[in-house]
Amino acid sequence: MGGAFMENKIRVLQIGSGHFGQSWLDVVTGFPDTELAGVVDVEPEHLVGAQQRTGLAADRCYTDADQAFAEVQADLVLIVTPPTTHKTLALKALQAGFHVMLEKPLTQTYEEAVELLAASRESGKQVMVSQNYRWRPAIQTAKQLLASQAIGQVGYIEYSFRKAKHIGGWRERSPEIMLEDMSIHHFDIIRYLLEKEAERVHAESFRPAWSWFTGNPSTQVLIQFEHNVRVNYFASWVSRGKETTWNGDIRIVGEKGAVEIIDDRVRFTSADEPPESEGTEVALLAMPFTERAASLQDMVRAIRTGTPPLTSIEDNIHSFRLACAAIDSATSGTTVVL
Question: Domain 133-291+320-337 in CATH: superfamily?
Fold first, then answer.
């Protein structure tokens, strides 16, 4: 049952305590303004692990979400479960009076996302997707440079992501794993940096001969944003040679110069510098919280002030729509107009 007071810690009911959920438990219990009120997981052994990790009492661990919604005194439901469950769990949490925070992606399909958006508006509760890549020093530093008009009007972005990752589980069997599971992070970064929305997308995905994925682990995507800003995006889970960081290598080119994020280091090059110039490295912004802790901090602020979080469902549905459009384009072989 929901309800929070500004002077108190935000009480969190977490749904999902498997591998990734375990690390979320660390975030929730380690953050100064939240406390863990309960945990839900359909696997009893995951709940045992949660108890051992957090010291949570056994009577606050549930295998049934409906029972937890009825019994746990909490303010926020944190959903860390497979995307196929997101819509149902989030709708039930809203109906029970909770604010909702979800791991990405928002839902399984765009139609489900639209349904959840309507429910969130009707509920008056905060609904947020944890797009934690926004809360990284390199991204925040680049954002500040762009906001200062250091490179003027942006013309295009070159974006590359390269990993050779054995993920395991359902992800290695997914038909479009890069676009379904990873590219949403990068598309969200692009939207955040540009402050523009995509208008057209053409994507192709493929499976290199040496791939250990059964589906397509590699993709190339051309995106046209508002004001004719173009993005050339390439990503692969089965790369060879030097890998990128999780942010990827990003080169943002404008009329006055370029901002580059390479190996999580930010460089600025003025258009007045010679072509061989490597530009100037920019000191990264100091941040009290980063990654998922910063996402949680933003949600706590939103609950206490009543103002939407940065990656609210109202904002994130645009990143999710772009990812869905890229999948549609890759599977249909056509350009998708958003």
Answer: Dihydrodipicolinate Reductase; domain 2 (3.30.360.10)
Alpha-carbon distance of 294 to 130, in angstroms, equals: 9
- Over residues 273-282, the pLDDT tens digits come to 998 999 999 9
DSSP 168: -
Structural contact between residues 220 and 233, judged by C-beta atoms closer than 8 angstroms: yes
Query: 123: Cβ–Cβ under 8 A, 6 or more apart, which residues?
Result: 94, 95
- Domain 10-125 adopts which CATH fold? Rossmann fold (3.40.50)
Residue 307 has what DSSP assignment? P
Beta-carbon contacts of 290 under 8 Å, excluding residues fewer than 6 positions away, are 135, 136, 137
Please give the DSSP secondary-structure letter assigned to residue 277.
-
Binned at pLDDT 50, 70 and 90, residue 210 comes out as: very high
Write phi, then psi, for 53 (nearest 5 degrees). Answer: -75, -35
Domain residue limits, the chain: 10-125, 133-291+320-337
CA distances from 272 to 146, 155, 277, 280 (A): 17, 17, 10, 13
